[in-house]
Amino acid sequence: MRADARTRQEPPTTGRQTMAETRADAALDPGVVPAGSREPTTMTLAQVKVLGIATLGGIFEFYEFIIFIYLAPIIGQHFFPADMPAWLRQVQTLGIFAAGYLIRPVGGVILANVGDFIGRKRMFAFTLILLAVPTIAIGCLPGYAQIGIGAPLLLLLCRMVQGLSIGGELPGALCFVSEHVPERRLGLCCGILSASLGVGAVLGSGSVAGLTAWLGKAAMSDYGWRIPFIVGGILGLASAQLRRYAHETPVFLQMRARNELSRQVPMRGLMERHRPEIVLCVIISCMTAVVTAGVHLFPAGYFITSRQFEPALVYRAQFYAALALIAGDVAAGWLCDYFGLRRTFTVGAFSLIAGLLWMYGDISPEALPLRYAIVGFISGTVSLSFVLLIRSFPAQLRYTGIAVTYNLAAAVIGGTTPLFLAMLVRANSGWAAWYPSLFCVVAVISAFLLHRYRKPINPYAV
């Protein structure tokens, strides 16, 4: 019985390449259209709507991330004793933020395992609710002056719940969208999903800056800091309501109809039969985490402290890079669908290495905004890592596979990258470019090795 259960967990394969496998090859190298293929290349209105509501989660995820970081000094004043040194309040506030970040893999495993069992749609809405409710709660929490030690403990609880939900949000959106849209538009759709994260970051920073300018520093510190959390959380709940009207993915419906859902805990099946894919996808996800932190977070502090550039100039350049990243994500996805995944990913990764060496080389303050924006645009290449993850796991385990590999890299490597870079550049400033470049090279090698493990998104397509 056990052997029979295992054989039903994944669609049967033979020594001869199936039509689904041929279509997988075509998605990696779109210049070749398989004989007899009827794969659509245009998206229907329903598929566009699915993509649209999926991007709402990405926007909200990074919106919440940015506003917490920007408001950390004010949050520390409200949730810790007034006589505590300012630096210690800041450290403890960021420690609470980091706790929610580090619990992401746990949330990813739990939510993704459930999603592979009961369906993508249910988790698609639930993860956003789980993120929105504690966000509203943070905006309503009493401070240390009102409830003492209970204030930071409640803040920690809210951050932990947010971390659990974030672990399942983006992987769930990637899985949901990939099983709805045409395979030959997967790159563009992943690029748009990735761009939504940048949109959320821009909205988050813009809302904090705008409110501060409108209310003034005193009012912002008194009550205004609560507004971005409450408004963002309400919009998150509205987005979750829209997700309830989305349809379950055709792939999951076919797996359920054929009784081919996983018969064991998806995480166990993943570890038993897909270890090479896990290792390679974690390595590729590490590139995404390092580039995100090393290109869009670390340079601001580096150019201000190490190069002595004016803060206003550096922050303006960072904003330009964030806008360029949004465009770069979409461009990388479109190029992937046109030229092929491996070719686009390889060229993009090595172009990013060249851009990093150029940006951190002999640079004047006047040249920083342009160079930073160009590197930000090229860094959109990392959005193609999502396509690689999606294609690396069978449909029965796809949600879990994406969640485990992406969140593990984001929590462990992405969370420590700014710290490692800060220590490395003290020994040699060249590490600012060498460190992310190293991950780019390793990711390209891993992408080539991962090609042999590719899976069709819809194994039942004809």
UniProtKB/TrEMBL annotation:
Cellular component, GO annotation: plasma membrane
Keywords: Cell membrane, Membrane, Plasmid, Symport, Transmembrane, Transmembrane helix, Transport
Residues annotated as transmembrane: 50-71, 91-112, 124-147, 153-176, 188-215, 227-246, 278-298, 318-336, 343-360, 372-390, 402-425, 431-450
Entries under Gene3D superfamilies matching the protein: MFS general substrate transporter like domains
GO molecular function, one term: symporter activity
Predominant location category: membrane
Pfam families: MFS_1 (PF07690)
SUPFAM superfamilies with a match to the protein in the record: MFS general substrate transporter
Compartment annotation: Cell membrane
PANTHER family (alphabetical): ALPHA-KETOGLUTARATE PERMEASE, MFS TRANSPORTER
Name this polypeptide is given: MFS transporter
Originating organism: Cupriavidus basilensis
Lineage: Bacteria, Pseudomonadati, Pseudomonadota, Betaproteobacteria, Burkholderiales
